[in-house]
Amino acid sequence: MIDEFARNGSLLELYGGLLTEKQREILELYYIENWSLAEIAEYLKISRQGVYDILQRAIRQLNIFEEKLGLLRKNEQKIARYNNILMKMQELLGEDNYKLLLPYFEEIKNLFD
Amino acid sequence: MIDEFARNGSLLELYGGLLTEKQREILELYYIENWSLAEIAEYLKISRQGVYDILQRAIRQLNIFEEKLGLLRKNEQKIARYNNILMKMQELLGEDNYKLLLPYFEEIKNLFD
């Protein structure tokens, strides 16, 4: 289970395209650029409360998309299944051959992100 | 490039959760169960034209979701990159070792669907 901040960032990456431009901008500043609410408020010339409200509403929407499509949940399941397959291949290959292939296995793992 | 019928079926699997229940039911009957428009119309007791209109509107929406999130496009890219990595591993492993791991590679490939 990842923490809520990281989870919201992941939801933003998955479903950000479904938000309005304004919502996406604010969430990206907050979750990716790590700006504070005050900094975003000053930059966009709206109140801190205004930023907070947009953020809360957008997070609710991202969670609704996740309830409907479950992309984050499915990704986590895929990574778990992939790690499982990796372990079986490691047993079969032995340590040396497995190490030889490790860069490729890492490349494949990145495809699940 | 997959044909339009198969592509719409894939879009349905990816984004069906964002459609209304009625839209999803009709699209599943058409694209997954392969019923005709006339069969769906009779089953739901609406006109054939009504079924057609719901189908067309839902397909437009699925395409808008794909424009916004690009899950199908990204999946196709991932499969292409995975096949590429597989080829490099095949060269490195030699035919016999590669064949030994083939069931696992297939299992991994299924994770991209």
TrEMBL record, chains A, B:
Function: Might take part in the signal recognition particle (SRP) pathway. This is inferred from the conservation of its genetic proximity to ftsY/ffh. May be a regulatory protein.
Name of the protein in its database record: UPF0122 protein CHY_1435
Claim: Glycosyltransferase is one of the keywords in the record: no
Entry keyword DNA-binding: yes
Record's keyword terms, sorted: Coiled coil, DNA-binding
Annotated InterPro entries: RNA_pol_sigma-70_dom, RNA_pol_sigma_r3/r4-like, UPF0122, UPF0122_fam_protein, WH-like_DNA-bd_sf
PANTHER family the record matches: UPF0122 PROTEIN CBO2450/CLC_2298, UPF0122 PROTEIN YLXM
Coiled coil start-end: 55-92
